[in-house]
Design a protein that fits this description.
heterodimer; A: alpha/beta; Rossmann fold; 7-stranded parallel sheet; 9 helices; 7 strands; globular; B: alpha/beta; 7 helices; 34% helix; EC 2.4.1.141 (chain B); endoplasmic reticulum (chain B); Alg13-like (chain B); UDP-N-acetylglucosamine transferase subunit ALG13 (chain B); Glyco_trans_28_C (chain B)
């Protein structure tokens, strides 16, 4: 390749990258107006323990006939969060009257992990991703584990939706995050979609009810990245003026 | 009357040990409490009073109070319901569960936790009158002087707030 052509090509690529990167820093356009009857797909990351309890308290409040299909993203091995998600769905669903049917249908969904199939059958699915860092894991082992976790998030957030439908639907139209660790890798995967102009979930972060005077580490990291950032204490709102405060949410 | 002490899934031996110490049992007795149930979780230190020789549950009478101690149960719901007063570590999940049941609550933040945001939560809720926050040395005094009737009822979960945020963000409003 001749030198001027190469130079022009590199310049074009650089400009494109800069433009795309710059576009990431702009506020996202508002969501299109929806009619009240139009459904909206929804995903939530259940970060185990108190994170899961708070996330499910938020989800429990939602109108399930509007927000479906629902995807519960859990960390590998977090069977307690999986069970709590199933319990919530069962308590909100008529299927709870037929426990045997429910169990079989859900076992099928969980083994296939196919979101489209899940939405057709039960309107929710559990999605398992590897942990970014295991408890008691040595710090040296963290980078590979985090990369593996990120790869899995990218697979589910970026690649799978592309393969499934061409390029029309993201994993979900909105993704609720409330910490810890893995929710950052999910957020990064969503940003890869945005960088390439692919549909990306809108990102909503809700800081824990337990955080009164200081943001959690997840909160600090995700605050500049998410579309909505909510805190549950006015004290924290003062500290972090970009945050929204709507009273206690859980 | 019955008091329930819980440390959740944490290890908080000083609270467990204090809850069956004479000063606290005396304070409880003076307020009419005759039964204490202690969920000690990952309690480590060896004590003749609590969980002797590896037993999972123990019952005894000390300072005129029936003491029952055990480590874990699948759910604490029943214990919350039976209790007139709950003394707890400052975990946010426990706090929400207990306050939503309308029970009197004293929380004791674990002082050994680093970056103790639990203490901030306890103090913020105490300042609004929803619960009492105490340290371990202060516990007898707080028990003796507390007036559960003056606690401010904690509001029920208002799910419409988050639904409104989401509806707004997704173009429904």
């Amino acid at each position: 390749m001749e030198y001027p052509t190469f130079l022009l090509l590199s310049l074009a690529v650089t400009l494109l990258l800069v433009r795309r990167t710059y576009s990431l820093t702009l506020p996202r356009p508002e969501a299109k107006r929806r009619s009240p009857s139009e459904p909206c797909s929804f995903a939530v990351f259940l970060g185990s323990g108190g994170h899961t309890s708070e996330a499910l308290a938020l989800v429990a409040a939602l109108d399930f006939s509007r927000y479906y299909p629902r995807t519960y993203i859990i960390s590998e091995g977090d069977s307690l969060s999986a069970q709590k998600a199933r319990d919530l769905e069962a308590s909100k669903s008529k299927i709870a009257e037929f426990p045997d049917v429910r169990t079989d249908a859900y076992r099928l969904l969980e083994t296939t992990g196919d979101v489209s199939q899940a939405s057709a059958a039960a309107q929710y699915t559990l999605l398992t991703i590897p942990r970014a860092r295991r408890v008691h894991q040595s710090l040296l082992a963290t980078p590979p584990a985090a990369l593996y976790s990120l790869a899995s998030c990218i697979y589910h957030v970026t690649i799978l939706p592309l393969m499934r439908t061409g390029r029309s639907t993201p994993l979900a139209e909105v993704l609720l995050l409330n910490g810890p660790g893995t929710c950052l890798t999910l957020c990064m995967a969503a940003y890869i979609n945005r960088f390439f102009g692919l549909p990306s979930p809108r990102l909503i972060y809700v800081e824990s009810f337990a955080r009164v005077q200081s943001l959690s580490l997840s909160g600090k990291l995700l605050r500049p990245l998410v579309d909505r950032f909510l805190v549950q204490w006015p004290e924290l709102r003062k500290l972090c003026p970009q945050a929204e405060y709507r009273g206690w949410l859980v | 009357m019955r008091v329930f002490v819980t440390v959740g899934s944490t290890q908080f031996d000083p609270l467990v040990a204090a809850s069956i110490s004479t000063p606290i049992l005396h304070a409880l007795r003076s307020r009419g409490y005759t039964n204490i149930s202690v969920q000690c979780g990952n309690f480590k230190s060896v004590s003749d009073l609590v969980l002797p020789s590896g037993a999972e549950t123990t019952n005894s009478v000390k300072d005129g109070v029936n003491v029952e101690a055990w480590r874990f149960k699948p759910t604490l719901q029943e214990e919350y319901e039976l209790a007139d007063l709950i003394i707890s570590h400052a975990g946010s999940g426990t706090i929400l569960d207990v306050l939503r049941m309308g029970k009197a609550l004293i929380v004791v933040p674990n002082p050994t936790l680093l970056h103790n945001h639990q203490a901030e939560l306890a103090e913020a809720l105490a300042a609004r009158g929803h619960l009492y926050a105490s340290t371990i040395p202060d516990l007898p005094r707080v028990i003796e002087s507390m007036d559960a009737g003056k606690l401010v009822p904690f509001p029920a979960l208002d799910g419409s707030r988050f639904q409104a945020v989401l509806d707004e963000e997704m173009g429904y409003l």
